[in-house]
UniProtKB/TrEMBL annotation:
Belongs to the TIP41 family. It holds the Pfam family TIP41. It comes from Ostreococcus lucimarinus (strain CCE9901). It comes from the Eukaryota. This is TIP41-like protein.
Length: 265
């Protein structure tokens, strides 16, 4: 059963759809569409779309995220059971068994235009703008909140990979947190967090609105975490929230990039 949440505010129509795990026919369709040998065992057709009155839309879905995973093409991570894993997957996928089985994606959403708009989608540009975190902490009522899982894998019992998001709409702004997090037991922790923010009250002299996208990427090997005194028991990393907390406390390197999407009226 699909559950839909929707709210209109500040020139935006925000709609989320939460679905059960996709059926085999849909999974095979996605594999064909993204040209992948396989997909995460838990794949969802859940999606979030934020449509602006100008006709520009920002969409989040598993298929586009997996398309970015294929394009990134990271090398396969070696695990203790790598030989056994590779042998079993070669039998199924042949030469394609060397794919990145962690499903790591740099996905940052899909910018489109609605079918009745003849304009070209705007593009993300590097910016010095920042997300207004003070506005996010104001005690304004939450008009809409949802959490979606786009895909998840237990990595053949070697850990977990998960892509999900949270969306919040308030009277003066909306905020989306998109997270890919990975735990390969005994090897590494990886966390890609992408935050999206739009302030309805900020419009330039041309009437354009701006969406700010902040991407933070953290990655630590098990050995590096251990050397910093951080916990290395897989049970200490049950979800993205806990992984983020541990990685932040460990004080390791972080890569931060901020972009802006300017939407003309």
């Amino acid at each position: 059963m699909t559950t839909v949440a929707r709210v209109a505010r500040g020139g935006w129509d925000v709609e989320s759809a939460s679905t059960p795990i996709a059926k085999r026919a849909r999974i095979e369709q996605v594999e064909t569409n993204v040209d992948a040998p396989t997909t995460p065992e838990m794949l969802f057709d859940s999606a979030l779309e934020l449509r602006h009155e100008s006709g520009v839309a920002l969409r989040f879905e598993a298929e586009d995220a997996l398309r970015e995973w294929v394009k990134l093409g990271l090398p396969a991570i070696e695990v203790a059971a790598a030989k056994t894993w590779r042998r079993s997957h070669v039998e199924r996928f042949g030469d394609a068994a060397e794919y990145d089985w962690t499903f790591t994606t740099p996905y940052g959403g899909t910018v489109t235009t609605t079918s009745d708009s003849n304009r070209q989608p705007p593009t993300w540009e590097l910016t010095d703008r920042r997300i207004d975190r003070a506005m996010l902490t104001e005690r304004d009522p939450i008009l809409m909140y949802d959490e979606l899982t786009l895909y998840e894998s237990e990595l053949d019992d070697n850990g977990v990979a998960h892509l999900g998001l949270k969306v919040r709409v308030m009277p003066k702004c909306w905020f989306v947190l998109l997270r890919f997090w990975l735990r390969v037991d005994g090897v590494l922790i990886r966390l890609f967090e992408t935050r999206f923010f739009c302030d309805f009250t900020e419009v330039d002299r041309t009437g354009a609105v701006v969406v700010v996208r902040e991407t933070q990427r953290r990655e630590e090997t098990w050995d590096a975490l251990h050397a910093r005194g951080a916990p290395c028991d897989p049970t200490q990393f049950p979800d993205a929230d806990q992984a983020a907390s541990v990685l932040l406390a460990a004080g390791g390197p972080v890569d931060i990039v901020t972009h802006a999407l300017t939407i003309a009226p």
